[in-house]
Amino acid sequence: MQGKNQLRKYNNQLTNVKAFNPGRKPGFFYSIPPLVCRLFSIRFICSMTRKERYTFVIDYFEKNMPVAETELEFSDPYQLLVAVILSAQCTDKRVNMTTPAIFEKYPTVQSLSKATFEDLLPLVKSISYPNNKTKHLIGMANKVVNQFHGAIPMTVEELVQLPGVGRKTANVITSVVDKQPNMAVDTHVFRVSKRIGLVPQTASTPLAVEKILIKNIPGHLIHKAHHWLILHGRYTCLARTPKCEKCGLQTVCRYFSTLQ
Ligand code: SF4
Residue 22's domain is classified under what CATH number? Predict the structure, then answer.
């Protein structure tokens, strides 16, 4: 609830923000496109350093979104794991409408491990890819019960052994539940980090983006930075029509500089 209030406040602030300035302006030459800088070998004076850009962006989010959390509703690691598996190619809002009935019928991973496909499918059918996700949930629960003694494992290496759990899901679980410095790169994180210029355009895979973000964000902020980038991408830096006019990151955003 605290996170939801915070997000509402953040969105309200955006309507008034022209350009956030934490006290330091980027260099005069920053607005020159990077390609021009490269062509004339003057990149060192006309481009903000990567460290400066990270500092600006982190300062901005710490000030404007001090609480950043997942919008999935859950009350324990089991429920979060179910919700994250269901959220692939689906909105958090839709998942939150679906999970209460699942958790009521299957309150523990042990109870879910005994579910049949026919029992569970009707509760999952309003979600995208219901057949696969139903199989994954039952398979996940069986593996947790049989291989991990009924406790949701809390390392990426163990989690990716579960059906329906890839690296992104494992990163979400470990960072949300355990605040481990793992960065889940979804479509929003991938797009926003490249648009701002936190990550070069040449980073072509989620793993490449993940590695660069992890390297440049302080470890204790990585679990939070994941939500900053997701929420910014979901509500401000939209895929088709980013709301640049309301965005406080204009001053350092590479994409925005190309529009000028
Ligand atoms: S593209 Fe626009 S909305 Fe996205 S971070 Fe840059 S200035 Fe903000």
Answer: 1.10.1670.10
pTM of the model: 0.82
Q: Is 59 a catalytic residue?
A: no
Cβ–Cβ under 8 Å, residues 222 and 214: yes
Do residues 223 and 176 touch, judged by C-beta distance below 8 A? yes
- Of the residues 143, 186, 194, 224, which is catalytic? 186
174-233 pLDDT tens trace = 999 999 999 999 999 999 999 999 999 999 999 999 999 999 999 999 999 999 999 999
Contact 90, 130 (CB under 8 A): no
Residue with tokens 């850009």: 53
Ligand 1 pocket member 256 (CB < 6 A):
yes
Same domain flag for 92 and 167: yes
Domain of residue 164, residue span: 77-178
Question: Catalytic residue among 76, 92, 119, 168, which?
Answer: 168
Is the distance from the beta carbon of residue 255 to the nearest atom of ligand 1 less than 6 Å?
yes
Q: Provide the number of structural domains found in the chain.
A: 2
Are both 92 and 158 inside the same structural domain?
Answer: yes
186 assigned to active site:
yes
